[in-house]
Amino acid sequence: MVFNFFKKMMGKDKKLIKEGDEAFYSGNYSMALTKYNEAIMINKSNQEIVRDNIIKIQNIEQLIAKMHESVSEKQYDDAIKICEDILKINPLDYVIQRKINSIKDEAFNYHVKLGDGHFAKNRYNAALKNYKAALSFKTDSHIQNTVLKIKNILALRKAGDEAYQKGDFRTANAKYNKVLELNPYDVVCKEKIKKINKIDTLLQKANQYISFNDYYNAASTYKQILQIDTIKHIENLLSELNDKAFRYYINKGDKLYSNFLYKNALKSYNCAFQFKTDDDISDKMLKTNEILDIYNNGEELFKKCEYNNALNNFKKILELNPNDKNAENIKVDYQIIMPGAIIDSNEIGICDFTQEQDKFIYYFSPKKVNEIYKNYEINPLSRMVFMYFYIEGEINGEKFYKMSRIMLRANEYYSLGAPE
């Protein structure tokens, strides 16, 4: 009976090993391990028979754990690679084969969902990346068409943006509208089209200002556009405008300076300085401002009857600008009215100062009288205007004119009217 018992148990352990092998190749590793352990309990010598499969099961269980971890972390490529490593150990494991397909389905759906989310928010590059990832796990015609659509959108957007930065707003507008045909919910392109409409209106205003040499408002309009969006073309236009305005106001200032209109010249130089800083313009501004200060100081000295000091001021102006006919005429005027002044060889006598302020008595030859009329009464550059009263007389038997001269400022002169 004992012999029969052992014979029966020996037959059972073989059966357990066979069942364990069947469970192993079907991927039921916990069942296989149970059967192998039972066979070993019956006969320890079976340990050598099942040892390789037990080691394989231990390795596979570790890999399965890693595979599940990768899936939970959405590391689908890693999970599939682990499954492939398991199949190298046990090529007949249909459970792992089915698991690979399951992982691919899950990965496909996961990336499609992410892609859809990015597409809805117009994040096309991110959407494209996810859709391509989805297609690496599973072929799908709808996703393939979506990928092509995104590529078209990106190409149209790029072309639109390039035209936009170059200032070709008509082309940019057309490209952005084509994007909206592919995706009516593209908020970026909708916003760009709105900006283009505003920019077109402002550009028309800027061009109108430029046509009237109104560079300040033109520059201000360009800056308004740059507040709407940073556009390279508009930045270039603004830079060109600054150069053009600078040259315009410099030339205008130089012309005014050459006509001795220093106050207006300084205004033009200041305008030029607003558009561009330059050492030359700084020198022009300093020199012009210095002349204006000397002019103003000279007039103040004249009002105080400090004629010598006033005369010196206008001599300084001539040192700064020898071509200043205005200052030259004023200098001559001041020389004439200074008591004791001798004008030239055609003049006889000296200036007699009366008690009435700004009234002087001169004795001039007829030739000098004509020169006075010619040089002063009709000379618009003279800063002072005189009214003359003549009394005939004789000096040493020669005929001369005694001239009583009352000096008026230019504004008084024009308010009274020019003398006949």
Structure, briefly:
The chain has about 425 residues and is an alpha+beta fold. It has helices spanning about 1-25, 30-40, 45-70, 75-90, 95-120, 125-135, 140-165, 170-180, 185-210, 215-230, 230-260, 260-275, 280-305, 305-320, 325-335, 365-375, 410-415, and strands at about 350-355, 360-365, 385-395, 400-410. The chain starts with a helix and ends with a helix.
Explain what the structure shows:
The chain has helices at residues 2-25, 29-42, 46-72, 76-89, 94-120, 124-135, 141-166, 169-182, 187-211, 215-228, 232-258, 262-275, 279-303, 307-320, 325-337, 366-377, 410-416, and strands at residues 352-353, 359-364, 384-395, 398-409. Strands 1-2-4-3 form a 4-stranded antiparallel beta sheet. The protein contains 17 helices and 4 strands. Helix content is 74%, strand content 8%. Strand 1 (352-353) and strand 2 form a beta hairpin. The chain is of the alpha+beta class and 420 residues long.
Using the alpha-carbon principal axes, give the shape.
Answer: rod-shaped
Order of helices and strands: HHHHHHHHHHHHHHHEEHEEH
- What can be said about the biggest beta sheet? 4 strands, antiparallel
Helicity range: over 70%
| Helix count, DSSP H or I runs of 4 or more residues | 17
User: Order of strands in the sheet with the most strands?
Assistant: 1-2-4-3
**Fraction in beta strands:** 5-15%
How big is the Rg? 52 Å
Structural class, from helix and strand content? alpha+beta
Quaternary state of the chains: single chain
- Based on DSSP secondary structure assignment, what is the total number of beta strands? 4
Output mean pLDDT: 78
pLDDT below 50 for ≥5 consecutive residues: which ranges?
1-6, 337-366, 375-420
Instruction: Please give the alpha-carbon distance between the first and last residues.
Output: 166 Å
